[in-house]
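Sequence of Metal-dependent carboxypeptidase (Planctomicrobium piriforme).
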Amino acid sequence: METLPAAYTALVERLKELAVLRSCASLLSWDEQTHLPPHGAEHRANQLSLLAGLCHDRATDPAIGDLLAQLDDVQALGGHAAPVAANVREARRNYERSTRLPRRLVEELSRVCTLSQQAWVEARHESNFAKFQPWLTQMIDLKREEADALGSSTGVRYDALLDDYEPGATVAQIQGAFSPLRETLVELVSAIRSSGVQPDISILERHYPTDRQKSLSLDAARMIGFDFQAGRLDIAAHPFCSSIGPGDCRMTTRYNEYHFSGSLFGTLHESGHGIYEQGLSTADFGLGTGEACSLGIHESQSRMWENLVGRSLAFWEFFYPQTQSAFPDALGNVSLQQFHQVINDVRPSWIRVEADEVTYNLHIMLRFEIEQALISGALSVADVPGAWNDAFSRYFGMTPPNDALGCLQDVHWGAGLIGYFPTYSLGNMYASQFFEKANADLGDLNEQFRRGEFHPLREWLKTNIHSHGKRYHAPQLVEVVTGQPLSSEPLLRHLRGKFGQLYRL
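Predicted 3D structure, token representation.
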């Protein structure tokens, strides 16, 4: 297509201005979780609520609807797979969703999200769900109202919320993907527990000074390709990655002097998100082709760098000497094989972000179950701790001793991210399928990792995934990249192969 329609040029101008305004809100949200004084929460909530309202006004401006009406000829835009057509398609989807939501609801959701996150930090610190309960009650009421306003072709409230993170996905589809995965994981966990192999996890509970953990985390992120000239790493109560805009991607982690793996693997995870954001087209900022495909695809990038790369033996054959040098007192007498075994220890644990690859998806399934019950009304907020503990006992065979290790461990509900959790397990499936294809295309990735060469994989991901933005929806992208529809088999092959070898199954 040689000449872009005037309506498209005008639409792009409006979308880019909206993206800049939203980036201001993103910066304030990042600051809220990293540097905001506790007494500033109320004012920050008002700031973000006002910005949310202003963004909503721009997003629902009838002028955007008029421009979109002039751009309904897909063939004139280059066909369905053309970048211009994808940008119009995504703009139309966003416009239609936004116009279903009243400004009052958008502003109130923003305000409550800010205050509830602050309440969550305090409640988690005190392990006291009662302090968070009033805020979660408000949040669930607001998210139900949002779901009803958005509507869903299936008539399932939760589907309307899930669609925000994984467009087109439904509860029925997710359950269909999770069911065979759950059965195999339970069998694999049982086989591992019966193997008699018990890594010495006390190795990870030795003293690891925070300043050295920070230095090592920065080195690891830089090594796999996160650009610190276009990003930074800070501390927060819960690790996250926030893309403020082109050239400004901000990650957080947290440190525990007696739990080494939390910060290192948390940083690798967030670096995967950050590398994806840094790999998107800066010229297309504010457009579909400059945005991540879906949260499931986003999580595939973080889970790939954290697990398929970061927990591989090849990665540590290169990085362990530096790590051992950083912590001579803790790791001086620990062999590479011992270290690799212990960072891949498989056993039920309380905290999702610190869970091993095998049990991790069970954490997600538990949250998926509880979220659906909350949104449908089958579960009251007051009963969340009990429901969590009962479900945890069913999934893991043990009961959390307190709320901090139970239902208060994740920030997502306080942040209003209802419907997000399933994307983690989808991300694990996407990651394994992409990794198999990358390995076939690039040769032996593990041999490259042993030499400290991570750029071939990073560039492959940028070319095949990042550069497309939302040109394709997630199911299409998987087929375009791998030639096959999404399947749990690559993930199960990875888990059976890796842990079968580690636990001599």
